[in-house]
Amino acid sequence: MEVFKRKPKEVDNNAITPFWNVVLNIIVGIFAFTCVFPFLFVIAISFTDEKVLALNGFSLIPEKFSLAAYQFVFNTGDQLFRSFGVTLLVTVLGTLISLFLITTYAYVLSRRSFRYRNFFSFFAFFTMLFSGGMVPNYIVATQFLHLYNTIWALILPIAMNAFFILVMRTFFQTSVPDALIEAAKIDGSGEFRTFLQIVLPISLPGIATIGLFCTLGYWNDWFNALLYIDDASLVPLQAMLMRIQNNMEFVIQNSMQMGSSFEIAATLPTETVRMAMVVLATLPIALAYPFFQKYFVKGLTVGSLKE
Questions:
Q1: What pTM was computed for the model?
Q2: Is a pLDDT exceeding 60 seen at residue 161?
Q3: Where is the ABC transmembrane type-1 domain (predicted)?
Q4: Residue 162 pLDDT > 50, yes or no?
């Protein structure tokens, strides 16, 4: 007797997929809006008149448009553009140096043929757990390396990052086939030529991801300038904006103790200047994200699973 089995009811994926696509797009859109909204709010406040802001509070749409905050910042003269140039130079040069040091160190650690790779992996990992501290770092940078008031004081202290080294090591291990390296050696390619012409071109997603992190680190760094820089011509953008804010607060505090100068202090655009500084410090680096987005997303996913 022939037994007929009931076929399972087929699910129409075409009817479900558009619905879930809409739901997921709405969720992602809401999440993206919550990330962008604070920055848009900061921009709106920076273009708001300080007196209206003090009376009516914060608003997404400026009730009275004003450029007083940006005029106050740009009244520093050439110092703002000089600091911007210093930050741009430090960011570009520091990122290139960091990528060279990190990728070469990580590539050596990724090669199984390197006898001491476990030792140097532990050496990099150990620096993530313990550090010499601020005073020894300052003594080494100023007394031994003589980096005080030089552009290298803004580059070398953060040029190496142990976490980035371990990330790139894992990326090389999972994304660069050993057979490709062996084939290059059979064809007579040396280690440096293999690394430069074969490994680096296929590792652009990982390199772009680490490069973006290095770029953010150099662009937002102000602490090294606070420690090692006194020359006004070498002050980076972040440190210069911080000094403007500190000077403005100093003027306000001292003026409030003097009745005749209280009105001058009251006219200073305090809140809007802070927001204008955030815009000036954030907008240039935010504009660089679209150029890194393709490699950045791929670098976060490639190497997470190994076939």
A1: 0.78
A2: yes
A3: 84-289
A4: yes
Question: What local confidence, expressed as pLDDT, does residue 224 receive?
Answer: 92
Q: Are 69 and 276 in contact (CB under 8 A)?
A: yes
Which run of H or E residues covers position 108? helix 78-110
Query: How many helices (H) does the chain have, and how many strands (E)?
Result: 15, 0
Q: What is the DSSP letter of 75?
A: T
Asked whether the predicted pLDDT for residue 130 surpasses 70, the reply is yes
* Structure-derived torsion over alpha carbons of residues 205, 206, 212, 215, reported in degrees to the nearest 10: -130
214: part of which helix (H) or strand (E)?
A: helix 204-220
> Per DSSP, what are the bridge partners of residue 302?
305
Q: Kindly state the tokens that stand for 101.
A: 């040091």
The span from the CA of 307 to the CA of 177, in Å, is 11
Best CA proximity match to 277, nearest among 76, 95, 60, 54: 76
Task: Measure the CA–CA gap between 82 and 287, rounded to whole angstroms.
Answer: 20
The length of the chain, given as a count of residues: 307
Domain boundaries, the chain: 68-301
| The predicted structure's pLDDT at residue 152 | 94
Give the other-Cβ count within 10 Å of 30's Cβ.
10
CB 212 within 8 A of CB 162: no
Instruction: Kindly report, residue by residue over 74-120, the tens digit of the pLDDT.
Output: 876 678 888 889 999 999 999 999 999 999 999 999 888 888 888 99
Q: Kindly indicate whether the domain formed by 68-301 is annotated with CATH number 1.10.10.10.
A: no
